[in-house]
Amino acid sequence: MPSQFDLDNFVPFLFTATMNIERPMMEATMALRLDIPGASGAEIQRGIEAAEKVFAIAGVSAEQAADGMFALEGWDDASFPDDGKPTEDENDAAAVWMEANQAAINACCADWPADQIPPYLMLEFVD
Fold first, then answer.
1. Residue 7 contacts by C-beta under 8 Å, 6 or more apart in sequence?
2. Which tens digits make up the pLDDT trace of 16-61?
3. Domain boundaries, the chain
4. Dihedral sign of CA atoms 26, 16, 78, 67 in order
5. Which residues pair with 31 in a beta bridge?
6. pTM for the full model?
7. How many CB atoms lie within 10 A of CB 110?
8. pLDDT for res 118
């Protein structure tokens, strides 16, 4: 796992996580969603499986990685204050999330022309 997030190459992007607040938290089930317009169901599934493999190899759950990304984006939204800087663990988890996102896009769009492959965050953690 990376030891520190490279802030010189940080590009902010939207992270979406939703929870159904009508159900108790312990009954909530979370899943990955890959939203790539024009992708087939099989391509989407291939992308999600690639992301899950990244999480498994890194030994980080999708939820932990999403939490790290949330912390990083919150820090970005607050204009990078010194006192709100993500922890090393949060940085590492965010890096895993970004790697999983890229793996998902690459696997989903493996047969696509390069100019049609989206370059930004497409992976979401949802209930």
1. none
2. 333 333 434 344 456 899 989 999 999 999 999 999 999 999 999 9
3. 39-122
4. positive
5. 126
6. 0.74
7. 12
8. 86
